[in-house]
Design goal:
Endonuclease, Chain A; three-stranded antiparallel sheet; 286 residues; 2 domains; single chain
């Protein structure tokens, strides 16, 4: 069904921008003139149309949203934000899978705002310079991984050393991979070499910290739908999504707006609330 109201809202940049301007509060005609680079007489027909819809009302020299105005404009902002996010990186969104994100956050994906698509130079998000610098400068770090990265044990140890508040969620498959790494045959030919043997001993020790049943920083996610990685620091959110074919691509999202950080916190809490602490699993004997 064609909506005349949609035409009123979206077929005129002046009307659309005026509604968004009034969303911040009542404005005088002088404030409107100053905010828009248009002759006032060209704005009068647009204002009259908005007054006719009942979304805007005039009292003296002041204009404000009225009735359903705030609700309509709030939803209009969400739609415009979503379209802008999609349009800025259309190829990325077309090629990546979003079903791993919970529906209530997919519906609010506009909150990511001005995200950038960054080339993933190495396989692990942890090794990206900008991300790593942010992690080490933060007071709190939240991590989620669907696959086990070999650098994670040493990375976790470094966070502990720096007294950075840490929460790490790993998928059940990644947890099992860690167990296998820890139980790897000590008699393998490679480990008989003294250098490799020493390195592996240190690696086993750090991996054991992650799997320690007393560890309350580590959670195991047992769900089936999950992104490749999510990383949240004090000043950035990084998200690695799988491609539509289920294969990891060489790109990740980098978001730094306050709304994006809040969105990322909710995403992490969603996965954490559907996870189990590693202390609930069988402890692995070294």
């Amino acid at each position: 069904m064609k909506s005349k109201l949609l035409d009123t809202l979206f077929f005129s940049e002046k009307r659309k921008n005026l509604l968004l301007f009034l969303a911040d509060g009542p404005k005088s005609s002088g404030e409107i003139k100053e905010a828009f680079d248009f002759p006032w007489k060209s704005m009068i027909p647009q204002i009259k149309q908005l007054l006719k819809t009942g979304l805007v009302e005039k009292e003296g020299d002041m204009y404000r949203l009225s009735g359903m105005g705030p609700v309509v404009v709030a939803n209009m902002k969400h739609l415009l934000g979503t379209l802008e996010l999609y349009e800025e990186n259309m190829d990325y969104w077309k090629e990546h899978e979003l079903s791993s994100l919970p529906p209530f956050l997919r519906e609010r994906i506009h909150e990511l705002e001005r995200c950038r698509v960054i080339p993933l130079k190495n396989e692990s998000i942890l090794l990206q310079n900008r991300v790593l610098n942010s992690i080490l400068a933060s007071g709190r770090v939240r991590l989620f991984f669907s696959a086990f990265y070999s650098e994670l044990p040493f990375f976790y140890s470094e966070l502990l050393e720096r007294k950075i508040e840490t929460g790490i969620i790993i998928s059940e498959a990644a947890f099992k991979d860690m167990q296998e790494e820890l139980l790897e045959d000590k008699n393998s030919p490679e480990l008989k070499n003294s250098l490799f043997g020493t390195l592996f001993k240190g690696y086993r020790k750090e991996t054991g910290k992650l799997l320690d049943r007393e560890n309350r920083d580590i959670f195991v996610y047992t769900g089936t739908r999950l992104p490749a990685a999510v990383l949240l620091t004090d000043d950035l959110l990084s998200v690695v999504l799988y491609g539509k074919n289920g294969v990891l691509t060489n790109q990740y999202l980098l978001c730094q707006e306050p709304g994006a950080l809040k969105w990322g916190e909710e995403l992490f809490m969603y996965y954490m609330n559907n996870s189990k602490r590693v202390c609930d699993y069988e402890a692995i004997r070294n």
